[in-house]
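Please fill in the sequence for the structure shown.

STRUCTURE ENCODING:
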C-alpha cells in the first residue's frame, strides 16, 4: 500500500498548494486551441434563437454516443446576484460533451453551437488542450484511482482507509505512552 499512498500524497500536492501547479505551468506549454467566446445579442436576435431543448437535441444528434452533456446558463459577466439571475442572450452556447464513462478525460470535448441555426461552430477535443491541462487531468485521475478504472478506485479507497487507521493507531499508542509516563512519575513521587 505504500506506493499507492505515495502517489496519493504526491498528486494531492497539486490540489492543496499553488506552488506545484505553478512549477508545472512553467515547465510545460499552456497554449491550447481557444474556443470562440459567445457574444451578447439584441432581444430581436434572441427571439430567433432555438429553444434550449432543440439545441440539446442538435448536440445529441452530433454525438450519438454521448454519456453526459453539460452547459451553463447565459449570464452577464457582472457577478452581482441580480445579474446572475438575469438571462443574457448570446449568439453561441458552449456544451461539454462526455463520450466516455466519466473516467476518460481523453473522451471529453467542448462544442460551440450557434443558437440560431443549431450549427456546429467549433469543437475542442482533448488533444487540442494545452499540455498543462492534459497533465492536470491525468493527475486528478491518478489521485482518485480512476486512471486504473474501478479496480484502481477501490485500491485508492482502501489505501485511504488504511491511512486513517494508521493515524488512529499512532495517536492511540502515543496517548498510551503519555498516560503510562505520567503514571510512572506519580508512582516515583510516592
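FILLED IN BY: designer on duty
SEQUENCE:
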Amino acid at each position: 500500500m505504500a506506493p499507492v499512498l505515495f502517489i496519493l500524497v504526491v498528486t494531492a500536492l497539486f490540489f492543496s498548494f499553488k506552488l506545484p501547479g505553478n512549477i508545472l505551468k512553467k515547465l510545460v506549454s499552456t497554449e491550447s486551441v481557444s474556443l470562440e467566446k459567445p457574444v451578447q445579442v439584441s432581444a430581436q436576435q434572441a427571439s430567433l434563437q432555438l429553444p434550449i431543448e432543440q439545441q440539446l437535441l442538435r448536440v445529441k444528434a452530433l454525438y450519438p454516443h454521448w454519456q453526459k452533456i453539460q452547459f451553463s446558463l447565459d449570464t452577464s459577466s457582472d457577478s452581482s446576484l441580480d445579474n446572475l439571475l438575469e438571462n443574457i442572450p448570446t449568439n453561441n452556447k458552449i456544451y461539454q460533451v462526455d463520450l466516455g464513462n466519466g473516467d476518460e478525460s481523453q473522451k471529453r470535448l467542448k462544442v460551440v453551437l450557434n443558437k440560431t441555426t443549431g450549427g456546429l461552430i467549433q469543437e475542442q477535443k482533448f488533444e487540442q488542450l494545452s499540455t498543462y491541462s492534459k497533465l492536470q487531468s491525468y493527475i486528478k485521475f491518478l489521485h482518485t484511482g480512476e486512471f486504473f478504472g474501478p479496480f484502481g478506485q477501490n485500491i485508492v479507497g482502501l489505501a485511504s482507509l488504511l491511512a486513517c487507521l494508521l493515524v488512529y493507531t499512532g495517536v492511540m499508542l502515543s496517548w498510551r505512552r503519555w498516560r503510562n509516563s505520567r503514571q510512572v512519575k506519580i508512582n516515583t513521587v510516592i
